[in-house]
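Batch manifest, entry 17 of 40.
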Amino acid sequence: MNLSFEYSILNFFESIRTPFLNSLFIGITQLGSFDFYVTVIPILFFIINEKIAYRFLFRLIICYGLNTILKNAFKLPRPSKELIDVLFEESGGGYGFPSGHAQNATVFWLSFYTEFKRWIFLIIGLIMIFLISISRLYLGVHFFMDVVGGIFIGIVFLFLYIYLLQKPLDKVSVGNIKINLPISIILFILSFFNLFSMATLFAATSGMILGTGISSNLNYQMKNGILKTIIRVVIGVGILILLRFGLKIIIGETLYMDIIRYFIMGIWITFFSKILFKFLKI
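Output type: structure tokens
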């Protein structure tokens, strides 16, 4: 890695900083954060086909794990705070290569195009990947090659997922309890080991997979229409928020209690919400 070249790029972005751009790029970088995906993925289950929603979820879980493995394999440093003024440092911990924001953003935003096959999604996706990647350079939390590497790995991963993993993992969305139950149990057990610091995500996914398995006999069909979609999202996300914070008060906030809390939230997304939506005919 040519560090003089890398720092010349970061110095350029540092030279054009303004209070407005600082706020703008901090906001943009949040669109590639773990919290953003944890918020958006449940919404997808309330507005699109469950099979497609699961594809987004599984791609991001595996991609996050892959990124953690690669970071610890390469062990390349981030820009030095002595040589560059790092902004929003809390968004960039650990090793630098490859950029998790760039890698995950590539997988997430290009997935809209691979699933819906519309050029508008490709254009929006490329713009979002570019902006999120540039935000990492502007904030000084990544080198240029970290970002380029993250985008490249994201593209390769998405290609391999579609051609190798998508078909077998799609079986989860069918709702076969014989398939979903063992997968749910495995993920629930793994959540207690907090692999890749994703205990709550594993727990929520475990609950969602179990919920899909036991909801196969509900015969619920998501209703079309903008108004009904908005109502589903408002009710679905609203109760999800109540569960998240209500259960925190009731059962406490430890790692083990968080696992149980997110497991229950996962079951709500794919099972109890369907019961309510079917009753409300939405």
